[in-house]
């Protein structure tokens, strides 16, 4: 019962999308459509949104990898090697996020079909979190510690050419 009028019934002339990813409204419901109860359909859609969130996070990590590995050393005139290593670390994180998201999606689909709930392994979460924290701390250290030690002029102590 919708006491506040927040949901509207679908317009009778609206048709479902058709095509390779949609359902043709001219075809009646099949047995497999009847199997999907509303909660199960929402659960599958939530699982799909979760996979997309893993992909978005991986794309953000790729952006950080490019920024740290290529752009920052060029713009800040800093030595490239530490930033290339950090950029590669962020790239590995991106690949790991895509793989973890895919495996989680497949396991989640199996769990939904079996009527179970899929828990995330605490060991994986600790490992992923520790790796991310290590990358963040290393990135901050490589970016800011030489500048703090070198003073306000921004002298880079890791590059002998910039020493006075």
Structural features, described:
The chain is mainly alpha-helical and 164 residues long. The protein has one domain (36-162). Helices cover 66% and strands 0% of the residues. The chain contains four helices and no strands. The chain has helices at residues 31-35, 38-76, 80-114, 122-150. Helix 2 (38-76) packs antiparallel against helix 3 (80-114) and helix 3 packs antiparallel against helix 4 (122-150). The protein is elongated, with a radius of gyration of 25 Å.
Could you give a quick summary of the protein structure above?
This protein is an all-alpha fold and 164 residues long. The chain has helices spanning 31-35, 38-76, 80-114, 122-150.
